[in-house]
């Protein structure tokens, strides 16, 4: 017989606070144990497609669980069905993509956010959700050394937490288009956005979403500018493209500069791009410069990395992901703009049912007007916990340790005659490959590198990923391996073990 004591009048089997406490303690223990046994799992999940689904019932359960006791079965499935299908992003030997590092304080903040169950779309729907968020994003302005006019207390600027860098780019793009439209460009203009060939695919996706680009192949309305041999945008080619477009009657309205590209950590010349926009009529017609620093932005907590951004003078918005490399579990993007009114102009719509005195007074921020969805979670809590727990010193130490480890790895690559760096190290990202053998074709070098990567990943001991760097200045395109260091648990011994495994796997 199930215990009926917690049922309300409607017979709904909620957990009582006491049951929740008991189960909650078990699950917090589970997560702490998981942290302790992280190294015992293959880093990359080894299941075949459909394997997890095949162990799950096709139909939902008709009967719920038999109280807390019934949860034993759920926890067993968690171990037997779910865990084998998990790739362990928090493993100290996870070096793939970019990190998505989590931390104890962030996980607890997430738990609290779920426990409060607040929906913070308007200031009035939970004042603390808005005011804490405003304060922590302003703290980030200090921590990263961003311009004062990105602060919420400045005359026209402010920051907000978006879900992802992709949403940040979309929001910047629609704000830009609306600003240029209000400046006099016809609404049905042929809009053109610019980024480098190395920009993240989310720039193209944003243009597709807001109707600027007609499909993923539309290189007329999203111009991907060629790069130099370090994969940074060539500003003179941006200028040429803008002038061609103006000549053809199109309307350049948005440039996305990447600081720390996803492929190779490349950095676009922000100052020169801003100068191009100022020299051509782009800036004077309201055109917008957005910085996508999704991964590398976190490194700005260290003053020694602030030269990544050679100038912020003409930057309209800047976004980075604390959910990549600042110990705040996914999702958490910090977005800053100098022109908050442009966001409101593009995104604010007020139906009667959301009207309220606080909003009408103009004295409060309603973050729903700064983002795509209406509803929003209390994400500021996890960022607040992280910032308070680690402090600026702790965050700097975290970034510096990963950069130090990447320098070690870089030096081992350089010392081994069989390997080479593909591009100079970027912060904690090392792009490298097996050198071409004498007389070997580019295709065969690529194949040897691909096979090496597959061998090390199949071992389950590490997980690295690859990219293809495009052909520049006569040099052919290259398949290369990426060593992206950034898990909170990674120590020097893990980086050394990864290198030793790579070396031992060369055939
Ligand atoms: C990871 C990454 C993105 C996408 O991040 P999301 O937050 O997942 O949207 C965008 N730009 C760059 C440069 C990235 O590295």
UniProtKB/TrEMBL annotation:
Keywords: Decarboxylase, Lyase, Pyridoxal phosphate
Cofactors, names only: pyridoxal 5'-phosphate
Example GO molecular function: carboxy-lyase activity
InterPro entries in alphabetical order: Aromatic_deC (IPR010977), PyrdxlP-dep_de-COase (IPR002129), PyrdxlP-dep_Trfase (IPR015424), PyrdxlP-dep_Trfase_major (IPR015421), PyrdxlP-dep_Trfase_small (IPR015422), Pyridoxal-P_BS (IPR021115)
PTM annotation (N6-(pyridoxal phosphate)lysine): residues: 324
A biological-process GO annotation: carboxylic acid metabolic process
One GO CC term, this protein: cytoplasm
Top-level taxonomic group: Bacteria
Family: Belongs to the group II decarboxylase family.
Name of this chain's protein: Aromatic-L-amino-acid decarboxylase
Native source species: Myxococcus fulvus
């Amino acid at each position: 017989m199930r215990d009926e004591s917690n049922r309300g009048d409607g017979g709904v089997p909620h957990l009582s606070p006491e049951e929740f406490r008991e189960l909650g303690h078990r699950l917090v223990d589970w997560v702490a144990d998981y942290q302790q046994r992280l190294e015992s799992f293959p880093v990359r999940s080894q299941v075949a497609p459909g394997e997890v689904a095949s162990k799950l019932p096709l139909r939902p359960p008709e009967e719920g669980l038999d109280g807390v006791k019934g949860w034993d079965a759920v926890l067993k499935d968690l171990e037997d069905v779910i865990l084998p299908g998990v790739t362990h992003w928090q493993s100290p030997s996870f070096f793939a993509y970019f990190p998505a590092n989590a931390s104890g304080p962030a996980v607890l903040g997430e738990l609290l956010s779920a426990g409060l169950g607040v929906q913070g779309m308007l200031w009035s729907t939970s004042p603390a959700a808005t005011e804490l968020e405003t304060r922590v994003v302003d703290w980030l302005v200090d921590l990263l050394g961003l311009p004062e006019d990105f602060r919420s207390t400045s005359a026209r600027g402010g920051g907000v937490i978006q879900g992802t860098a992709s949403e940040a780019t979309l929001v910047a793009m629609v704000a830009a288009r609306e600003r240029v439209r209000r400046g006099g460009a016809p609404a049905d203009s042929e809009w053109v956005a610019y980024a480098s060939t190395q920009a993240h695919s989310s720039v193209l996706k944003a243009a597709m979403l807001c109707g600027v680009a007609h499909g993923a192949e539309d290189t007329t309305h999203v111009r991907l500018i060629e790069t130099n041999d370090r994969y940074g945008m060539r500003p003179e080619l941006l200028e040429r493209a803008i002038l061609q477009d103006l000549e053809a009657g199109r309307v350049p309205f948005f440039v996305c500069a990447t600081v720390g590209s996803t492929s190779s950590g490349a950095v676009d010349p922000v100052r020169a791009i801003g100068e191009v926009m100022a020299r051509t009529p782009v800036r004077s017609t309201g055109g917008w410069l957005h910085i996508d620093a999704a991964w590398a932005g976190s490194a700005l907590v260290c003053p020694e990395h602030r030269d990544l951004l050679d100038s912020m003078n003409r930057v309209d918005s800047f976004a980075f992901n604390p959910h990549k490399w600042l110990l705040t579990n996914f999702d958490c993007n910090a977005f800053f703009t100098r022109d908050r009114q442009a966001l409101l102009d593009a995104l604010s719509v007020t139906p009667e049912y959301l009207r309220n005195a606080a909003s009408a007074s103009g004295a409060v921020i309603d973050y729903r007007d700064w983002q795509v969805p209406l509803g929003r979670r209390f994400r500021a809590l996890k960022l607040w916990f992280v910032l308070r727990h680690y402090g600026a010193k702790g965050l700097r130490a975290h970034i510096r340790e990963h950069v130090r480890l990447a320098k070690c790895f870089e030096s081992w690559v350089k010392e081994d005659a069989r390997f080479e760096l593909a591009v100079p190290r970027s912060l904690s990202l090392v792009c490298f490959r097996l050198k071409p053998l004498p007389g070997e074709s580019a295709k065969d070098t690529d194949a040897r590198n691909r096979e090496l990567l597959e061998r090390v990943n199949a071992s389950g001991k590490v997980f690295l990923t690859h990219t293809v760097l495009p052909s520049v200045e006569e040099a052919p395109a290259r398949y290369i391996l990426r060593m992206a260091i950034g898990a909170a648990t990674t120590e020097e011994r893990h980086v050394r073990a990864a290198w030793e495994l790579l070396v031992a796997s060369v055939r």
